[in-house]
Specification:
Layout lengths: L5 E4 L3 E8 L1 H5 L8 E2 L8 E3 L1 H10 L4 H7 L2 E4 H11 L16
Parallel strand pairs: 2-4
Antiparallel strand pairs: 1-2, 2-5, 3-4
Helix pairs in contact: 2-3
Length: about 100
């Protein structure tokens, strides 16, 4: 691992750096949905469905989007746990349109 891309997590020790929106960190209750921002498995970035809607409105990572997301740095193990908690399947008729939908 590259030292510049690691974090010393109080729960998992030294691990790869990842980032998620602050909403996913602050809300440990009801799942908020989870969107992975990167296809590279070594570059873990994610945000909730509310952040995805703002991203779609802004059509980019604008200042408004960045302020809304309140990004937080976490270790890759925390990222995986956060993703597992917040990710869920939505029935097709209720699904929000994401940028992957074209």
């Amino acid at each position: 691992m590259n030292d510049e891309l690691e974090i010393n997590c109080p729960h998992h020790g030294r691990a790869s750096l990842a980032s998620v929106c602050g909403h996913l960190i602050k809300n440990r209750g009801t799942p908020l949905g989870f969107i992975e921002n990167n296809d590279d498995p070594d570059d873990k970035q994610g945000w909730c469905y509310a952040c995805e809607l703002v991203y779609l409105q802004e059509e980019d990572k604008t200042e408004r989007f960045i302020a809304f997301t309140d990004y937080t740095v976490v270790c890759s193990h925390c990222y995986d746990q956060i993703k597992a908690h917040h990710q869920f399947d939505v029935p097709d008729g209720d699904r929000i349109r994401t940028r992957d939908d074209g």
